[in-house]
Amino acid sequence: MAGSSEAAPDHGRGIVIMDDWPGYNLNLFTYPQHYYGDLEYVLIPHGIIVDRIERLAKDIMKDIGYCDIMVLCVLKGGYKFCADLVEHLKNISRNSDRFISMKVDFIRIKSYRNDQFMGEMQIIGGYDLSTLAGKNVLIVEVS
């Protein structure tokens, strides 16, 4: 861990940020001027996030065995992460000896009405989910 003589604990595939981690100094980065005065430090630099998404894409391809994938992106929060993940999956496919077909669709999940939990989720948009039976489906949701 940068700035610490203590070794970061090994938690398998994840990145651990200790509660007392002061973050990276802003002088190490460039960032939009409209954030000046609002930011105090950077916890996770963009490059680390990109590397982690690439590693996740490799793990997904390993887990599914380079089979065709149907990606369901849960909007709105998952859009950017899903786009980045799909791009890495496509790059892996392009650089492999087997082309992987990927289809992407978008759905929204509604579980609240007027700030009240409805007790069930309503899926809006996307395919008839019954058509996904027997397929490799990757659901991308950011919460």
Automatic annotation (TrEMBL):
<dbReference type="InterPro" id="IPR050408">
    <property type="entry name" value="HGPRT"/>
</dbReference>
<feature type="domain" description="Phosphoribosyltransferase">
    <location>
        <begin position="47"/>
        <end position="141"/>
    </location>
</feature>
<dbReference type="GO" id="GO:0005829">
    <property type="term" value="C:cytosol"/>
</dbReference>
<dbReference type="Pfam" id="PF00156">
    <property type="entry name" value="Pribosyltran"/>
</dbReference>
<dbReference type="GO" id="GO:0016740">
    <property type="term" value="F:transferase activity"/>
</dbReference>
<dbReference type="InterPro" id="IPR000836">
    <property type="entry name" value="PRTase_dom"/>
</dbReference>
<keyword id="KW-0808">Transferase</keyword>
<protein>
    <submittedName>
        <fullName>Phosphoribosyl transferase domain containing 1</fullName>
    </submittedName>
</protein>
<dbReference type="InterPro" id="IPR029057">
    <property type="entry name" value="PRTase-like"/>
</dbReference>
